[in-house]
Amino acid sequence: MNPIVEQVTDDLRERSRRTRGDYLDNCRRTRDELPPRKRLSCGNLAHGYAACSQDEKAVMARMESANIGVINAYNDMLSAHQPLHAYPDLIKQAAWALGATAQVASGVPAMCDGVTQGQPGMELSLFSRDVVAMATAVGLSHNLFDAAVCLGICDKIVPGMLIGALQFAHLPIAFIGSGPMASGIPNHEKAAVRQRHAQGKADDAELLAVESASYHSPGTCTFYGTANSNQMLMEMLGVQLPGSSFLHPEDPLRPALLDRTVSALVQAAAEGPGHIPLYRVVDEASIVNAVVGLLATGGSTNHTLHLVAIARSAGIQLSLDDFHALSPAVPLLTRIYPNGSADINDFQRAGGMACLAGELRHGGLLNEDVMSLLGPGLNALCRPPTPGNNGEVQWAGDAPVSADTSVLATLSSPFAAEGGLRRLRGNLGECVIKVSAVDPAHYRISAPVRVFASQQSLREAFDADALNGDMIAVVRFQGPVANGMPELHKLTPYLGVLQDRGHRVALVTDGRMSGASGKVPAAIHLTPEAAAGGMLARVRDGDLITLDADAGTLELHVEASELAARESVPLPDSASTLGRGLFGAMRARVSDAASGASVFQFP
Q1: Dihedral class, residue 465 (left if φ above 0, else alpha if ψ from -120 to 50, else beta)
Q2: CA torsion, points 559, 563, 565, 568, in degrees to nearest 10?
Q3: What is the DSSP letter of 579?
Q4: What is the rounded CA–CA span in Å between residue 198 and residue 204?
Q5: Parallel, antiparallel, or unpaired: how do β-strands 544-548 and 553-556 relate?
Q6: Can the peptide bond before residue 172 be classed as cis, meaning omega within 30 degrees of 0?
Q7: Which of 47, 173, 241, 378 is the most exposed place for a label (fewest CB within 10 A)?
Q8: In three state form, how does the secondary structure of 396-463 look?
Q9: How many CB atoms lie under 10 A from the CB of residue 77?
Q10: Domains in the chain, ordered, with CATH?
Q11: How crowded is residue 12: how many other Cβ atoms within 10 Å of its Cβ?
Q12: What is the pLDDT of residues 408-449, one digit of tens each?
């Protein structure tokens, strides 16, 4: 066992002793006092079963087999979720074949961050995670279900579902994804056209054609953003079947994996030693494994928010310190766009999750004392799923070796000595940076500040040819209190062009970038944010900032006395169009980014 991974896990357990203990007590008390279906009246049950067939009603009334609740994030606007339309009926069929039943418990909202990038709707994106959590809880609150399955893939949806599910962790709960779309135009070609478009060298028709050749069919987007990071994390946590994440939506193994998920839930819901509630699966050890997986793959910066919020909803006091402590121990093992030219399908062909997990396990970088719906340990995680003789899925044989070390490296020859996420601290506060796609020559930048209040204002300055030198772009009032903490991914082409012109540039913001954070160093999630008294509100044009990813520092070179004497720039008025006015109460209540940017006040 790697001593750093072991120490972080031990520290996390000790730090979480009280809150985790209270959480587990609550889970067990819920199971004892409110067992599924057992306390419902005849009228309650009749309402819950009214639309079922007579055969289903007879099985349900006996309460001798599981009734599985389905939480569904299906819509056909979101490409990754479009395949889910058939899944509830397939789950019902699989359950019935086992003498059990299933019902759709609720739908949850599922927004597409790709549609809202750079648009007002992006201000609702992060808050949608907590809305999804509440919608998940509403569906399961009927207490009609012995187990649950969550159907979701993308950015805020999976974290939201898991946060909600963890309030029902006395039940077995599983996740099922749908897989990535086939590879389209190479991501680096798409990025090049985006940069040309930013310079006026490509028109809208050319850009739309390229974007449509990249995002072209049902399935997850193929770059390694938040959606695909979600899928990796669900496997590392043990709530999604090993090796299921990155199979194409029409892969012939998918139906068997769905059946196996339902079978595992039915078995886990039964009383006795095989009972596996969610609280046994998501614990300190599996959370650390998830962080290790994120670091080893250079995953989405959004998960420095989501994993913290997920952990705290389970009574686990994960913090940015844990990411920072683990990063030196975990080498970077993948090159998937944006930190390489390959996409997620290339990763799958190179060996996928089984190869990645096998390498990490071989290096002692994963906790072995973990539980999944398949039982204890890591054996299944390190083996690809294959069809067995009876048609059921099996996980057998040895962990695969990488078939393409330019995409999926070995521990003996990693792409970098440490993970792709780092914490920065200084007199402006605390933030994170993703360096897996950044050239080491750009890890340290010291430059004068240009302050912007929005993505649009930076774009206008770029279009006016007013950005012609080294620059730290400060984009403030983009935190959760200010406007819901939107992703600022639309800045990437403009900053990338400036870097390509030979300027030393970086971004400092209290907002987010995205899973596609790229080659320009970006200090993001700055806490405290400008709208909550952060020093970012006192930064002025011409100030000097040094961003040093190697040293882990972010410093504003202004005398403390002068900085204290400056007045903070006031928060701009919040816009209320496109539904944003409904979320004022969430902006007023939300925690800071370092605490997960959540409206839920977990202890």
Answers
A1: left
A2: 170
A3: G
A4: 10
A5: antiparallel
A6: no
A7: 47
A8: CCCCCCCCCCCCECCCCCCCECCCCEEEEEECCEEEEEECCCCCHHHCEEEEEEEEECCHHHHHHHHH
A9: 10
A10: 3-182+217-395 (no CATH), 421-572 (3.50.30.80)
A11: 25
A12: 999 999 999 998 789 999 999 999 998 888 999 999 999 999
Write the Ramachandran bin of 140: left for phi over 0, alpha for psi from -120 to 50, otherwise beta. Answer: alpha
pLDDT single digits (tens) 47-96 = 999 999 999 999 999 999 999 999 999 999 999 999 999 999 999 999 99
Report DSSP letters for 311-323, one per residue: HHHTT----HHHH
Q: Are 515 and 225 in contact (CB under 8 A)?
A: yes
User: What is the crossing angle of helices 284-297 and 352-362, to 10°?
Assistant: 110
Element containing residue 200 per DSSP (H, E): none
Write the pLDDT tens digit of every residue in 33-44. Answer: 999 999 999 999
pTM across the whole model: 0.96
- In whole angstroms, give the CA distance from residue 598 to residue 136: 16
CA angle 150, 75, 227 (to 5 degrees): 60
User: Can you read off the two tokens belonging to residue 154?
Assistant: 């993308």
Beta pairing, strands 421-426 & 385-387: unpaired
Q: What is the pLDDT of residue 191?
A: 85
pLDDT digits (tens, 9 = 90+) for 124-140: 999 999 999 999 999 99
DSSP-derived letter for residue 603 is -
Distance CA 392, CA 259 (A): 8
Q: How far apart, in Å, are the Cα atoms of 328 and each of 4, 281, 303, 420, 422?
A: 9, 26, 18, 10, 9
d(Cα 211, Cα 230) in Å, to the nearest integer?
23
What phi and psi, each to the nearest 5 degrees, are found at residue 344? Answer: -65, -25
What is the end-to-end Cα distance of the chain in Å, rounded? 31
**Cβ–Cβ < 8 Å for 242, 318:** no
Rounded CA separation 431/78 (Å)? 30
Q: How confident is the model at residue 313 (pLDDT cuts 50, 70, 90)?
A: very high
Angle at 385 between CA 281 and CA 237, to 5 degrees: 20
- Burial of 107 from C-beta contacts in 10 A (0-12 / 13-18 / 19+): middle
φ, ψ (nearest 5 deg) of residue 396: -140, 170
Distance set, CA 115 to CA 198, 487, 520 (Å): 18, 12, 23
Angle of helix 42-49 versus helix 54-62 axis, rounded to 10: 140
pLDDT tens digits, one per residue of 455-480: 999 999 999 999 999 999 999 999 99
Q: d(Cα 372, Cα 535) in Å, to the nearest integer?
A: 44
Tens digit of pLDDT for each residue in 496-543? 999 999 999 999 999 998 756 678 999 999 999 999 999 999 999 999
Instruction: Give helix then strand counts, H and E, for the chain.
Output: 23, 16
Q: Output the CA torsion sign for 464, 465, 471, 472.
A: positive
Strand runs labelled E in 358-401:
371-372, 375-376, 385-387, 393-395
pLDDT bracket for residue 268 (50, 70, 90): very high
SS3 readout for 221-259: CCCCCHHHHHHHHHHHHCCECCCCCCCCCCCCCHHHHHH
